[in-house]
Fold each of these.
Amino acid sequence: MKAFAALLDQLIYQPSRLGKLRLLADYFATTPDPDRGYGLGALAGTLDIPHAKPAALRELMTTRADPVLFAYSYDYVGDLAETIALMWPGAGANTAPPTLGHIVETLRASSKQAVPGLIAGWLDDLDATGRWALLKLLTGGLRIGVSARLAKTALADWGALDLADIEELWHGYEPPYTEMFAWAEKRGPKPPATGATAFRPFMLSQAIEEQEFAALDPRDFIAEWKWDGIRVQVAGSTGGDGRVFARSGDDISATFPDVIAAARFEAVLDGELLVRGDGFNPAPFADLQQRLNRKAVTRKMIDQYPAFVRVYDILFEKGEDLRGLPWEHRRQRLDAFMATPRDAFDLSPVVAFDTWDALKELRASSRGAGMEGLMLKRRDAPYIAGRPKGPWFKWKRDPLTVDAVLMYAQRGHGKRSSFYSDYTFGVWRDDELVPIGKAYFGFTDAELKQIDTWVRNNTTERFGPVRAVSPGLVLEVAFDAAQRSTRHKSGIALRFPRVSRLRWDKPAAEADLLETVEKLVEG
Amino acid sequence: MNPSAVVASWLKVTPAGLRAAPGNFWIDPVTPVDRAVITHGHGDHARGGHGSVLATDPTLAIMAERFGAQSGAQAARYGEPITVGDMRVTFVPAGHVLGSAQLVLEYNGLRAVVSGDYKRRRDPTCPPFEVTPCDVFITEATFALPVFCHPDDGGEIARLLHSMRVFPERTHLVGAYALGKAQRVIVLLREAGYSAPIYLHGALAGMCALYRHYGIDLGELRPVAGEPLKALAGQIVLCPPGALSDRWSRRMHEPVTAMASGWMRIRQRAKQRGVELPLVISDHADWNELLQTVREVKPGAVWITHGREEALAHALGVMGVPAQALSLVGYDDENDDDLTGTAPPS
Ligand SMILES: [Zn+2]
Ligand SMILES: [Zn+2]
């Protein structure tokens, strides 16, 4: 537990990705099995242990401390795990603190009633950092700035393995991942991929600019609409226990039981997850967001925001791996497969074109109706994991822009911690500015310095790391779409906002009005 | 009448601070007064512009360094009673920073002790806190929550040195208050065997020179100003906490940002400041030490000056010691809410 606690404690303060990878590699190299595998699972969100409810932990604390003092402390610290870790009496016996493996295995083997007693005993044995790590683990969701993908990347880097290989195997294995560590340390063979519903790494596209088309022959390519949903892989199962995986490889099946119920087939499909709007048109992305990141879904949710997958590729059919086939052949197999109508699945059409100019016109028409541009795919390209250069391109439509006024600036993180680099901007409603979004990229380092100086010189109020500024700096903000939102005072939310230009020349009073932005709302 | 009520008749909270009527002086006044008695040199306790000042010799020197020579300055020695008006005042070491003192006030057979800021841990840069039994103990409460339990400072210094080994190419930028913390960190580093030159932000130079004058060996110190960037790679640079997020810090190349403060015990506070390496090193008593001190001093009553008064008053009440908060305003210890500017905030 000591190594895992030290790792979490270092990760939480480490701003850089490379620094995090270095810390993780060090942990894998110096921590024995099965602890490191449980640690990896905890970071990647695959470690399944009985979780402790906050109320139970609070109760446990009051058996050891004055409830009034606990209340003052919790109020001051603001985080339950940290409050308990810091105020648990005793400096940690620490003679032989429990290992992570011991904790995980004991919890799994114990009855529910025994858990509070076990936790109390471990809290007595651990020091403050160990207690904090244990409580983080028990309350679920470590939130220390390490994604599942980063954890897997660290394993790949450390073991000199291919990340795509790890992702393909990942869902067939469980913590403590001893087979994977043996493989990474060259002590064992590459573990076999298991089962028809294992995750297969995605093939990804590269962005393309208009001037790059001259070098390409339109006859080599086909086009598809680029849908504004989330990319998913559906591994069907005739038993009704298929899987839906997100781009990260995360299994999101539990969130989309409507898709799983319809995925009673023996195939692995690649497509876009969308919510059905009017007729067969996709609803705005905001509707899909209602369905995302939910552990439990209600019937009502499903009826109100029915999910479906618009399919554009097939990777496996009846156990046969189709990924080595050229796109054209896979598409024939896909068309045949989709000839059978299925709930929650439809086919993404191929868009015909002869010349790049014709395609350009099509792209211009792609605004609205859930599209965000075009995809270009080489007819002869096999399905290659990762982001190969050349076979697939995405050609996003031109962004929308709005001239907005800088309202608040917040200090950034890591290298940017001495700069005000995160900006909240707004537009005018009558005489008042209403915030419509936040942006923290799109400007150069030199521009960042200029804005930073301007913010410091035009501060009207300070709230911790945030400064309110007088209305004086106009930012041209580019974004992919505007949507209705109840979360913002303005009633509007922007997709992928970024600063496209600093309008030092433009008086704040001449920035855009809210009603102008409202006209850009889709759906 | 009980002793606490009697002391309350001659030791009162006024807008300028705590006033001892029989001696006609104010303790650590926040606005200019005729006669000030100062516990220690931190900016929220020692301010300029008073008619006369009674303090230890190092505290007077610190004030002179900050505000220029003080009119009517009178130096007190530890343990030697001084008559002021109708009462006796004795300065007793508080173990907080160089020159810091508790004030033992005696009048009409009753004794009140004003702790000022204090700590109980060993500090090689100043004499240790001395326990003085009294009727009323007037204590600070900066870290008066059970979550504050300062770890051993040697362990914290070891973490700094470990980080220097893991990131040997990076500059380790350590935020530390100009008075007390900076010198303590330097001496602790020397004790841990770190003998390389330590680089200083300009705002720390004066206090370090003053500590040296009082015989504290700090080893080789060098100003950052004028050093080429490359020379700072792999070195320790000390600066005031405000400078960590100030434009000044940008001249460092990929620094590891560290901060030495008792507040670093709380992860969110450290994270909020963008600190990568929080060092929990405090010049104040932690929760257990505050309670332990009251047990040793055995006062009839405790008054609490500044900090987290409610929690301490509650815990003392449970212990059977009558306690009340004085709610003094204007004292802000190691407060890191103000993040900008290079002026050392006390
Ligand atoms: Zn102080
Ligand atoms: Zn103070």
Amino acid sequence: MTGAMNWWGSRWSGFGFLLLLVLLWEAAGRYGWVHKLFFPPATTILASFFQIVASGEVLGHVGVSIWRAGLGYGLAALVAITLGVLMGYWRVVYESLEIVVELLRAIPPPAVIPVAIVFLGIGDQMKVFIILFSCAFPILVNTMDGVRSVDPVLVRTARTFGLGQGALLWKVVLPAASPFIMTGLRIALAIALILVVISEMVGATSGIGYFILDAQRSFRIPQMYAGMLVLALLGYALNRCFLVADARLMAWHKGLTARQR
Amino acid sequence: MLDVGELRKEFQPLSGQPVVALGSVSFRVGSGQFVSIVGPSGCGKSTLLQCIAGLSRPSAGRVLLHGREVTGPPEGLILLFQEYNKSLMAWRSVLRNVRFGLENRAGMSRVEMDAEARRYLELVGLTGFEAHYPWELSGGMQQRVAIARALVRRPEVMLMDEPFGSLDALTRIELEDALLRLWESLRATILFVTHDIEEAVYLSDRVYVLSCRPAQVIEEIEVKLERPRSQLATREDPRFIQARHHIFELISKEMAKG
Ligand SMILES: Nc1ncnc2c1ncn2[C@@H]1O[C@H](COP(=O)(O)OP(=O)(O)OP(=O)(O)O)[C@@H](O)[C@H]1O
Ligand SMILES: [Mg+2]
């Protein structure tokens, strides 16, 4: 009785459900419930997945995509956290930049791709720029909110201890705002993955986005699905890593909020 | 050394008339003195300390420290906030919070800072809690972390805003005496805000009584009791009792007016 309860409550039930879906997919392809060409059976897709991984074919593409996404994301974090701290802390900076930021933020990033192509071509620069552009805003807005929510008593404490503006921002404001910044970084992580794939579908000869599009165009349908599986696993792994890092770095914040509840 | 001259502070609330927190407050604190301020709740005591600490600009009047006007946080002066729990850094352990008091001092290694921090933690009775986080401690313990962080810096002037407000009676007595010993050995100047009249008399050389808002000094009481003071003998001294009565009456009258 309790054994069954545990099974349903645990992750294994999640894996069980996943298995069920895979089996359904398999059956649908095998028994022709759907068009076999467009929905190859799960085993065919898995075989294709192992083949592209084992041959190393897809790893190169994944590596390129991670590099582009990582660079754009890292630059976005650097720029947006810096700007967000300045905008959140100094009203003058906020007043002078707010309208521009709000206007730029309102543009859906894919709409920026044509402009970026005009200026940067279709190479890596364009892709990194698009990722930077789209990741920057959630980080910026969250950092700003975080800085604004820092308790004035904390800032005054730092000032009475003689901290200058630089040390004050670095040692007090930034850590106090870090839970908000982490939220921004987490949202931006998902956006980075979306935009790297989109930008690679617009004009590229490498990257996982290109790989999927190329497979579709040359009618290697199982490989197309396998590429999507690669993306799913990649996104899942990145998010997991982020959560682990977050749990370590922000342990103090979890403890604090648990206490306040 | 500390000269407060006709200090006035108005606040503009989000709606309505300006609030005059400080009417015209004037007093002096000599070097090495222990001076207390008592007054009704909400009369402007915290506002007064923030102006003296250079964290809040007065609307009129001025504060002189060593004859120089205070326009920003002066070196060697520390304000211990009434909201001690908000002034601690939740992301730092207790030890690292206390170490913060020394971090922007030139010429001290991290090991030396930690040793000092440990010494002051022991003084406030928090040995064994170095690795804890502030939010894992009780209110009174957090208060003591904040006190240790201020003391570790050995400030020349210390402004304390109801520092023992959330402590139990025994810890309070212990810390009052520890503070007095420290004050004597550091030769520091202390301006101490409290709502406890007995505490003010017990600790101080002089007590200033403030009126209801807008605050003004209504009386200055010299406390001529010998030092070192003793929790039992001093508190039973007729001069202690007389000073206590006098201040109590002043504040009761003030409260009746407000
Ligand atoms: N930032 C502010 N904006 C508007 N009004 C303020 C502000 N800070 C303080 N006041 C007002 O100034 C008055 C004095 O406040 P203050 O905190 O100095 O009192 P206090 O004497 O320290 O009170 P307590 O004994 O309760 O700590 C209060 O009426 C308060 O409403
Ligand atoms: Mg107060």
